[in-house]
Design a protein that fits this description.
With 454 residues, this protein is α+β, with helices and mostly antiparallel strands. The protein has 16 helices and 12 strands.
Length: 454
């Protein structure tokens, strides 16, 4: 059993016995649906979070935009007795909120938050839209148009083009790439309402992967609400068929954009999925590496290049299984090669030395955030849902402040050594108006060409 699991097990035991604060329990509804209940005494709202598994992004036979449009259209497009476009206004009248979104391309998540006195009507509205949405054609057209316009605006940004090229380098023509980028020319032009109908029918069932309920609510009330929320949905999920195989071979790529007004530089490499543990170390390390103007990368670029710009770092998910470290920023075109060297060297030094300064200074903001999380019912429910999807014990989200406290300098250095990509194993993608700005790079003129870079 790893250190995180031991800490969480101890915390679960303590929280389950604490009558004065938040508690967690594993429950089953009268109809047999398992869920996690986080009781938050005195909280004025309840949040239900449900994760349905989906392999839509991985299969060649699915229309990738259907999932993106569908997450908006289900609630906006109406249901029996609920005209299209009016549910959000009714939710606002009830002081309730509802949303559906895609999480790491492996799940579709539904959130429903409400005051306890409005539980019955809120659940009825949500069930009607999950069970038999109208998917109004007018709203379908409106959402498709708006989504396509927003995406086109984003794709016109230089940094966006660079990350599109990275996805081509990592996934090539695999279906997941277009689910991430939605850059196939006919992605929206060929989308039909029937595509959304198919996506809806295969996604929403009575057998989701995980459910959490958080708030001041009894197990009896929560169980009844969940059974009503899922009533009438199909009984079983389809068998998951799709997967993706990333190619993280180190490459140096320059996307030549003659009209570019700035030059961007990005590094990407793989990190282990959060289900394997170590996420608290990662949060601290990423903040110290490139999280603000005190970070290692920011200071290296400012000091060694005497630059007026900064450089940042973060983590992301292509999927739950394929997680990445990225380092990115704008640089002077004439100093692109120098910036690549400075960033790579700074990253190499960070892997050896770890964060500068006192460890407690990095931990305190995280501990404060997690200690306050029970005050925010949606955040608490989301955190517990993600913990459930990662296979961690019930109550994980209640013990995160203590997990942060258990982080040591030795555990940070071990994480850097064992989990972070080596400096020479990163993929580098620059975007620039100067095709010669990165000597030795594979020069391309469109993002898809990155798939052929050696």
């Amino acid at each position: 059993m790893n250190r995180l699991a031991i800490v969480i097990l101890a915390l679960f035991t303590l929280s389950a016995c604490n009558d004065d604060g938040p508690t967690v329990s594993s429950q089953t509804t009268p109809d047999g649906t398992a869920y996690r209940l986080i009781t938050l005494p005195g909280h004025e709202y309840v949040s239900i979070q449900i994760a349905w598994a989906s392999d839509w992004a991985y299969r060649p036979d699915t229309h990738k935009a259907a999932a993106v449009v569908g997450t908006e259209l289900i609630l906006a497009g109406g249901a029996a007795d609920y005209p299209a476009g009016e549910v959000m206004e009714r939710f606002a009248d009830l002081d309730s909120e509802g949303s559906i979104y895609i999480s790491a391309n492996d799940h579709v998540i539904g959130e429903l938050t409400f005051a306890p006195e409005h539980i019955a009507e809120t659940v009825d509205i949500a069930n009607a839209h999950l069970r038999a949405p109208t998917l109004d054609p007018v709203w379908f057209d409106r959402i498709v148009t708006g989504t396509a316009q927003n995406l086109a605006e984003a794709q016109s940004q230089l940094a966006h083009a660079g990350f599109d090229a990275l996805r081509w380098a990592v996934f090539g023509t695999q279906p997941l790439r277009n689910a991430l980028s939605l850059d196939d020319p006919d992605t929206f032009a060929s989308l039909t309402r029937d595509d959304v109908v198919v996506w809806h029918q295969e996604t929403f069932t009575r057998t989701p992967d995980a459910i959490t309920v958080a708030g001041d609510i009894t197990a009896t009330a929560a169980g009844d609400a969940l059974d009503k929320l899922l009533a009438g949905l199909p009984g079983a999920q389809r068998q998951r068929l799709g997967e993706a195989t990333p190619d993280f071979r180190p490459r140096r790529i320059l996307l030549h954009v003659p009209t570019a007004q700035v030059t961007t530089l990005a590094f990407v490499g793989p990190l282990p999925p959060t289900a394997q543990g170590g996420e608290m170390e990662d949060v601290i390390l990423i903040q110290a590496l490139g999280g603000d103007d005190q970070s290692a990368l920011f200071n290296a670029v400012r000091t060694e290049l005497r630059a007026s710009y900064g450089f940042g770092a973060g983590t992301g998910n292509y999927s739950r299984a394929h997680r990445i470290l990225f380092m990115t920023g704008e640089v002077e075109t004439t100093r692109l090669a120098a910036a690549e060297s400075v960033v790579r060297n700074a990253y190499a030094a960070f892997l050896t030395d770890g964060p500068h300064g006192a460890l407690e200074d990095w931990k305190k903001p995280l501990q404060a955030h997690f200690a306050e999380m029970p005050e925010y019912v949606v955040d608490q429910a989301r955190s517990e849902l993600q913990a459930a999807l990662d296979g961690f014990a019930p109550g994980t989200s209640l013990g995160l402040a203590e997990v942060v406290q258990a982080v040591t300098r030795d555990s940070l250095l071990a994480r850097l050594r064992d989990a972070f990509p080596a400096p020479d194993s990163l993929i580098v993608v620059a975007t620039s108006a100067d095709a010669d700005a990165l000597p030795g790079a594979c020069v391309i003129t469109t993002p898809p060409a990155a798939a052929d870079c050696p």
